[in-house]
Structure formats: structure tokens, C-alpha cells
Amino acid sequence: GDSVTQMEGPVTLSEEAFLTINCTYTATGYPSLFWYVQYPGEGLQLLLKATKADDKGSNKGFEATYRKETTSFHLEKGSVQVSDSAVYFCALRANNNDMRFGAGTRLTVKP
Amino acid sequence: DTAVSQTPKYLVTQMGNDKSIKCEQNLGHDTMYWYKQDSKKFLKIMFSYNNKELIINETVPNRFSPKSPDKAHLNLHINSLELGDSAVYFCASSNIGTGELFFGEGSRLTVL
After folding, report:
1. How far apart are CA A100 and CA A33, in angstroms?
2. What angle do CA A39, B107, B4 make, to 5 degrees?
3. pLDDT bucket at B1, cuts 50 / 70 / 90
4. Could you read off the pLDDT of A44-85 as tens digits, one per residue?
5. Does B5 score more than 90 pLDDT?
6. 3-state class (DSSP) for residue B85
7. pLDDT for the residue B107
8. Does B56 contact chain A (CB < 8 Å)?
9. Quick count: other Cβ atoms within 10 Å of Cβ A33?
10. Three-state SS at A1
11. DSSP A67
């Protein structure tokens, strides 16, 4: 069935470091792809999304490009801040509208 | 104005008890969901309702029963609670067309 696989954490970076969190997917058809972020003690929030191949989603300095040829949707940020510390989830919405989440990657940014 | 609100935020109870978690959304969405998040942050979909009809039901024990009095509410009732039910339960809503899910803040259930 449709699924996403994201890099295992935890990831610990220093402030202003470059961030990449890898995400690959398996799906039939053409799913929409999402990154959600969960700050401590809160629910998940949409960070960015892309609905078709070669689309780039971006928000708050984060970016991800929908790569059909590599079935990937890697999350990147050029310079992380302490406030970016959270758990990040890659997700896909399959043709049956079921939203499938990856296992989550915990990011800790140290000052 | 909270878009998706769920109550209670924390719930501590004994094994064997029955409990309910309520969820309301004021976004006018047509679909609502319940997710379970375990201690490792893994998210598992439990149920979704679209216009009062159950459209997804993963392999969840029948001790869990969703109840939707109207399309703005989806409550989760759990009978005969077990230790393994301890988790954070998230309610979410969406419109099928847009795909984006809006989540509540979660209800942390602890079964002793």
C-alpha cells in the first residue's frame, strides 16, 4: 500500500546549520505530499505541501520539492533556529484520500 | 477561535473503565478523523467520518467507537480501557478536495 519513509532521528544541529530531512514515498497514482510539524505539547500543523511533480512547497524558510523520478520529498532549511526544534512528519494523501504519515523525525537545535 | 478543539486535554483513569474524548471543528469541513500517537510519536489513523458515514476504519479494537452527532463533532468512546491504550489521541478535520488536515491539540490518555 501507499506509504512514506523518512529518516530516523533524532537530529541535533547547532543554530544556523543546514537541515535536510529525507522522505521517500511509495504510491500508486499521483499523491499529494506534505510536511507537518509538531511542536512540544501541540498538535500537528501543516508546514508545506506539493500536489504534483516538480512542485516546490515552501514556508518559514523550509522547502521541499516533489521529485517523481526519485519518489522523494526531502525537507530543507538553510539556517535553522532554536525555535525550529520539533518533530517533523512527512505525509502523503493517496488517491483514496487516506493520509499516510511517516514515523516522524525529532529535530533539536542548540544555541 | 480554535479551529479543532478536543476535550479533555489530559485523562488519567484505571484499567477497565470507560471514557470518552470529544472533538469539535468550526471550519465547516466535511471529514473528521481520529489518530492515535504512541510514545515514539508514530501516528496511526483510527477512524474518519464523512457526512456521518464511516469511510475509514483501520484494524482498531471494537472497544473503540466513534460517534458523530453532526458533521462538526466526532467523539471517541473507549470501553474497558487497557494499559496499551495509553497514548495521545488527536482529532483532525479536512475537506476532501484540499487534502490538508487540521489537528486538535491532542488528548493524552494514561491508563493505570
Report:
1. 10
2. 75
3. low
4. 999 999 999 999 999 999 999 999 999 999 999 999 999 999
5. yes
6. helix
7. 97
8. yes
9. 29
10. coil
11. B
Collect all residues of chain B within an 8 Å Cβ-Cβ radius of residue A43: 4, 90, 92, 103-106
**Pairwise CA distance, residues A17 & A9, whole Å:** 16
CA B79 vs CA B34, B37, B93: distances in Å: 16, 19, 24
Chain A residues within 8 Å of chain B (Cβ atoms): 32, 34, 36, 38, 41-46, 49, 51, 87, 89, 93, 97-99, 101, 103-104, 106
* Burial (CB count <10 Å: 0-12, 13-18, 19+), residue B88: buried
pLDDT at B71 over 90: no
B98: left (phi over 0), alpha (psi -120 to 50) or beta: alpha
The answer to which of A33-42, B52-61, B101-110 has the lowest mean pLDDT is B52-61
Q: What is the mean pLDDT of residues A18-38?
A: 94
Burial of A90 (0-12, 13-18, 19+ CB in 10 A): buried
Phi, psi dihedrals of residue B66, rounded to the nearest 5°: -85, 145
Contact present, B6 and B19 (Cβ < 8 Å): no
Q: Is the CB of residue B80 less than 8 Å from the CB of residue B99? A: no
Q: How many CB atoms lie within 10 A of CB B96?
A: 13
Evaluate whether A104 touches A8 at the Cβ level (below 8 Å).
no
Peptide bond into B8 cis (omega under 30): yes
